[in-house]
Amino acid sequence: MRVLVANAGSSSLKLSLLDSDDSELWRRELPAERGGFDDDAVRAGLDELPQRPDVVGHRIVHGGERFRDAVLLDADVRAAVKELTALAPLHQPKSLAAIDACDRALRDVPAVGCFDTAFHATLPQAAAAYALRPDWGAAHGVRRYGFHGLSHAYAARAAGDAGRVVTCHLGAGASLCAVLDGSSVDTTMGFTPLEGLVMATRSGSVDPGLLLWLQQQRGVSVDDLAHALEYESGLLALAGTADMRELLARDDERAQLARDVYVHRLRAGIAAMAAALGGLDALVFTGGVGEGSARIRELACDGLGYLGVGPPEERVRVLVVRAREDLEIARQVRELLAPQGKRSDPR
Predict the structure, then answer these.
(1) pLDDT band per the 50, 70, 90 thresholds, residue 344
(2) How far apart are CA 90 and CA 206, in angstroms?
(3) Could you tell me the CA-to-CA distances from 61 to 107, 115, 286 in Å, in that order?
(4) What is the pLDDT of residues 313-323, one digit of tens each?
(5) pTM recorded for the entire structure
(6) What's the CA gap between 193 and 85, in Å, rounded?
(7) Torsion angle (degrees, nearest 10) of CA 33, 34, 37, 41
(8) What's 73's DSSP letter?
(9) What are the pLDDT digits (tens) for 113-148?
(10) Catalytic residue of the set 39, 54, 100, 116
C-alpha cells in the first residue's frame, strides 16, 4: 500500500510518498498561501509523483472528543473536522485546505485523517479534567486534549519495550508525554497547544489570574492577548530570538535567562511526567531542538540524576529519535485499511 502523507503546517505543506516498506519514494514541501494552499502548486507538485498513491494520509491537529483513531475522510467526517476549527483556529483550516487541494489533484484516491490529539485519548480523567465548572465541559468540550500525538506515538514506539517512557517533542512547539506500555497517560499541552513548556514564540503555562489582570486592570484586549501569547512570547520574549541555535550561541543576560527558564520548565515537566508513570525507564528526545541540540539535552538530563538519568546510576536509557510523523501516519492508515487478521502490531 503506497501512502502519500500530507502534513499541513502553518507555513507549508509537507508531502511524502512512502512505499509499502516505508521507504521514501518522493518528497516535496510547498509553501502555504494566505488561507490555504494554491491548487495549481499542489497539482504541479503531485504531477511529479513517481507512482500514484493508493491512499492519502492527512495530519489533522484536532480531533476533539469524537476522533480517537484514524478515520476515512467522508463528507460527514470532514464536516465534523470543520466544526472543530474553533478549538484550533490556526491549524485546522490549513488541514482542511490540504485535504481539499489533494482531493482535487488526486481524484478517486481515498483520504484518511490522522489526528494529533488521538494518541492522548487514553488520558485518565485525573490527567484530562480541569477543575472548572462541570457544565463548561459538557457544553463546550472543555478538557485537556494534548497535541503532537503523532510525534509522541512514533518516538515512544522507537523506544521499544521500555515500559515507562517520557517523550520530549522539542521544536518551535514543544510538549512532553508520559507513555506507559505504549499508551499516553499524561502530557503537558492541554485544551490548546499554549499550555505547558516554554516554546519558541508561545508562552507555555501562565497564571490565568495574570491574564485576567492584564485584561481588567491594564485594558489589554482579547485579540492582543491571544496574539501575544501565540506569537510574541516564549524564547522570543525572553531573549529577542525564537531560534534556539542563536540563543545558545549568545552569552548575554537575556539569552542566559531564556535558556534557564526553558530548561527549568523542561526539567520540571519531565519530572512531572515521570511521577505520572511511577518511575522512568526511557527518556526520548525528538523534534528540531530535541534532535539537534546536544546542549539542551545535556542541561535537561543534568538535573534529573535522582530519576536515574545520567551518572552515577544511569538506570534510564536516553534516546534521540528523528521525528517521523509521516511514518506514524502511514502506519495508522495501513492499520485502518488492512484486511481483518492482517493488521500490524499497533506498537
Answers:
(1) very low
(2) 20
(3) 24, 6, 18
(4) 779 999 999 99
(5) 0.94
(6) 14
(7) -40
(8) -
(9) 999 999 999 999 999 999 999 999 888 889 999 999
(10) 116
Take residue 154 and report the three cell numbers written for it.
512514533
pLDDT, tens digit, 9 for 90 and up, residues 30-52: 988 876 888 899 999 999 999 99
E strands, the chain, are 3-8, 12-18, 24-31, 55-60, 71-72, 111-115, 164-170, 174-180, 183-187, 282-286, 317-320
Grid cell locating 147: 497535541
What cell numbers appear for 8 in the block?
499541513
Domains of the chain: 3-115 (3.30.420.40), 161-320 (3.30.420.40)
Q: Which residues of 225-238 are buried (b: 16+ CB within 10 A; e: fewer)?
A: eeebbbeebbbbbb
Joined together, the cell numbers standing for residue 245 give 541555535
Q: What DSSP string runs through 299-331? A: HHHHT-GGGT-STTT--SEEEE----HHHHHHH
Is 38 one of the annotated active-site residues of the chain?
Answer: no
